Amino acid sequence: GAVVSQHPSRVICKSGTSVKIECRSLDFQATTMFWYRQFPKQSLMLMATSNEGSKATYEQGVEKDKFLINHASLTLSTLTVTSAHPEDSSFYICSASPTSGGRDTQYFGPGTRLTVL
Amino acid sequence: DQQVKQNSPSLSVQEGRISILNCDYTNSMFDYFLWYKKYPAEGPTFLISISSIKDKNEDGRFTVFLNKSAKHLSLHIVPSQPGDSAVYFCAASEENNFNKFYFGSGTKLNVKP
Fold it and tell me: Do B9 and A41 touch (CB under 8 A)?
């Protein structure tokens, strides 16, 4: 099946620093990738939709200057949490949809646990 | 505003019995529903889906039922196996924005041997 990887799986950083999370589709090309955030015991919340070669589309309430998204190729999207603060601590998970995919085809990465001290 | 809700955070079932996981939604524009399964340290994996034109979809031990009037869907697993122990997420999407998934908060299923 289709595989999506994320790196790093876990990161701890100091307040005020920036953290980059990578999302890669390993065996398919993904025109569109998605970034989600999950707080403990809550649902996955879509943050933004990342389109290869164009600007990301952010959901309401998500600060685009704080969560920078770059989808530079058909297999890689990055999320950079800029000037991270403790309230940004969360589980970030990406998904990727194959270029020719249907409504069932959104493949998820294993997630990245971010802890901001 | 949570448009998809899973009100049971956990469920424990004996091996061989039926597991029933429930999901409610509020948005009448949702026309496609999915169930994902998630093991620890892994991403959610697609399990089964149903279109709003149907009220039932079956795949092996897994059956999803949709009650549009009640805005309710359920996932039935029978017979349940210990390997089914995982967190199950319900998700929904609209036809005009089908890549945008709205997820429930998940139900942790424990199947006891």
Answer: yes
Contact A17, A84 (CB under 8 A): yes
DSSP B52: T
3-state secondary structure of B83: helix
Please name the residue of chain A whose CA is at the shortest distance from the CA of residue B5: A43
What's the pLDDT tens digit per position in B34-65? 999 999 888 899 999 999 999 999 999 999 99
Query: Does the beta-carbon distance from B44 to A108 stay under 8 Å?
Result: yes
What tokens does B32 get?
A: 């496609």
Q: Tell me whether residues A97 and B99 touch, CB distance under 8 A.
A: yes
- Non-local CB neighbours of A48 within 8 Å, separated by 6+ positions: A34, A35, A56, A57, A58, A59, A62, A64, A67, A69
Is the CB of A25 inside 8 Å of chain B's CB atoms?
A: no
Predicted confidence at residue A109, as pLDDT, reads 94
